[in-house]
Amino acid sequence: MADNRTYARIAAFIYALAIAATIAVVFLALPFAGPGYAWISLAALLIAESTVFGVVMYFISNRRTFLNQVPGYVAYGMTAAAYFAVTIAAVAICSVLSLTLLTYGIIHLLIIVGAAIMLGIVAFFVKYMERQDETIAAQAQFVKQLLLALMTARQHIEGWNDERRHSLQTALLRLEDKARYSDPVSHPDLQAAENLLLVQARELQERLRSLSRPSGETVDPGTIEEIGELIRRLEQQLEQRNQQLVQLK
Prior knowledge:
- The chain is an all-alpha fold.
- About 80% of the residues lie in helices and about 0% in strands.
- The protein has two domains: about 1-100; about 135-249.
């Protein structure tokens, strides 16, 4: 935050200097073209400079997302710089031409409209990419959440004083490996299936937590068989999810 404020102050200082220099240059260099041309030129240049300043401040306030959206931010910068350069060129060229004030004003108005359209297109592109990244990040949470539930479930049976726990641990480790090497980037069509997998994995986790036994106590054999069947069912559903994901991609 402190760095952002420092950069913002520097940008504001440069912006203030640019405004002062622009006012001085316009009224010193363009009086021969007429006061109307000078005022239109000043307004056009100040709007262009303010646009560049606004883009710079946008960069500063969104530094954390800059690296994730480099193409979009570069497009913002290039569009603002191009708009500023075209405005300067229009002022310089039109100042030596015999144009009416109306024509001169329309030229700058068209430049402003064109820049606004381009910035709007860039903004749409950046927002679209941000939403895509958010969607991918949300989809990638499935594997992490599934692994967390399975690892927690396995921890609940490590304290069992029962030799049969080893078969459950082996099955859970195998299921964890399949989850770990599953494609983390999902597909919207698989959301329902993935939600069901997560629900069942958490149910398994809670079931094993409720079956935690003090040292020396054993677990009913039927319960162990039931849990083993649940693990096998989860493994089958995860395999189906992975196969469907390959087909959808």
